[in-house]
């Protein structure tokens, strides 16, 4: 992979899961990485891990849904690391509520975390990417932007992330800025630890993933690193699904397994 030596990356939500793996991977590829998270200890731990591996990490405590926090974080990145070349947004909040039981406040909080935070960080970072003469934005989206998952507020926000990212890819192309989304399927991170403790959920979800395993944060981080590198200079305004072929086959559900068993028995 080419093009990350000497670059500065800002990973929002870098304290855990996919964001943490992306921060580590970008640092391994040569970037200095600002790790921004509302959980200060988590940001510190990611940055310390990067430093222990010989890289340069800067931990920043910020609530990405608060404009003044975001502006302060971006200022610190520019002051301490010299600019911004790569912005990765990897924040979320996932209330498991149906359309019947979600409250207006839960809806708003979800949209704030999953969409408004991406808007705020991008708005604050863009002038610095423009000043560098180009850059990369990678927004972590979700397969729920493509298929229904009974997560109405989360999916609505993720659908918006997908279409909004295309918009800014077009708007900022003449500045040499690329904007892409990555849509993970089921990746084992703290966000879904609780639900994946259920044997029934694990088994049926695994059955829906043709590659036969859950994703790892590193699977998504590798795609993020590619989209952040100069190998992806001509890739913009698109989405890369990282789901083990889940949404390529999801409409078959458990029928897939039954069909295979039936054919094997003939
Ligand atoms: N894990 C999956 O299966 C999966 C699937 C599809 C999409 N995603 C997406 O991947 C991204 C990362 O999720 P994850 O699975 O790594 O979850 P995670 O909970 O492990 O990490 C999310 C991080 O965001 C931070 N965060 C939350 N609210 C914040 C705020 N207001 N300001 C700053 N930081 C904040 C958290 O402290 C945490 O460190 C999210 O956008 C999520 O929607 C995850």
Q: How many DSSP-defined strands?
A: 7
* Bound compounds: nicotinamide-adenine-dinucleotide
Q: Which superfamily, in CATH terms, is the homologous superfamily?
A: NAD(P)-binding Rossmann-like Domain
Radius of gyration: 19 Å
Features:
266 residues, alpha/beta, Rossmann fold, binds nicotinamide-adenine-dinucleotide, NAD(P)-bd_dom_sf, oxidoreductase activity, acting on the CH-OH group of donors, NAD or NADP as acceptor, oxidoreductase
How is this structure best described in words?
This protein is an alpha/beta fold and 266 residues long. The chain contains 9 helices and 7 strands. The chain has helices at 17-28, 40-52, 67-81, 104-131, 152-171, 199-207, 217-228, 246-249, 255-265; strands spanning 8-12, 32-37, 57-61, 86-89, 135-140, 177-184, 239-242. A 7-stranded parallel β-sheet has the order 3-2-1-4-5-6-7, with helices on both faces. The chain is globular, with a radius of gyration of 19 Å. The structure holds nicotinamide-adenine-dinucleotide. Residues 13, 15-19, 37-39, 42, 63-65, 90-93, 113, 117, 140, 142, 184, 186-187, 189-192 line the site of nicotinamide-adenine-dinucleotide (NAD).
Q: What is the topology?
A:
Elements: E1 8-12, H1 17-28, E2 32-37, H2 40-52, E3 57-61, H3 67-81, E4 86-89, H4 104-131, E5 135-140, H5 152-171, E6 177-184, H6 199-207, H7 217-228, E7 239-242, H8 246-249, H9 255-265
Parallel strand pairs: 1-2, 1-4, 2-3, 4-5, 5-6, 6-7
Bound molecules: nicotinamide-adenine-dinucleotide (NAD).
Nicotinamide-adenine-dinucleotide binds next to α1 and α4.
């Amino acid at each position: 992979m080419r093009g990350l030596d000497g670059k500065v990356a800002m990973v929002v939500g870098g304290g855990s899961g996919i964001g943490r793996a992306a921060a580590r991977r970008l640092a391994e590829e040569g970037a200095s990485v600002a790790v921004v998270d509302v959980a200060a200890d988590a940001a510190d731990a990611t940055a310390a891990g990067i430093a222990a591996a010989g890289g340069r990490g800067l931990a920043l405590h910020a609530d990405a849904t608060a404009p003044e926090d975001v502006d302060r974080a971006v200022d610190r990145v520019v002051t301490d690391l010299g600019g911004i070349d790569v912005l990765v947004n990897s924040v979320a909040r996932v209330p498991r509520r149906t359309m019947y039981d979600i409250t207006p406040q839960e809806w708003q909080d979800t949209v704030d975390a999953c969409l408004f935070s991406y808007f705020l960080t991008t708005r604050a970072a863009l002038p610095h990417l423009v000043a560098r003469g180009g850059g990369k934005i990678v927004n972590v989206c979700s397969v729920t932007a493509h298929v229904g998952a009974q997560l109405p507020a989360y999916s609505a926000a993720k659908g918006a992330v997908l279409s909004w990212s295309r918009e800014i890819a077009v708007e900022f192309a003449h500045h040499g800025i690329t904007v892409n989304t990555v849509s993970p399927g089921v990746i084992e991170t703290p966000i879904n630890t609780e639900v994946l403790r259920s044997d029934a959920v694990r088994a049926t979800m695994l059955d829906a993933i043709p590659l036969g395993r859950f994703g790892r944060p590193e699977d998504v981080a590798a795609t993020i690193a590619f989209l952040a590198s100069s190998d992806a200079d001509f890739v913009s305004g698109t989405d890369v699904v990282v789901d083990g072929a889940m949404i390529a086959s999801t409409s078959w559900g458990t029928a897939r397994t039954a069909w295979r068993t039936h054919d094997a028995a003939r």
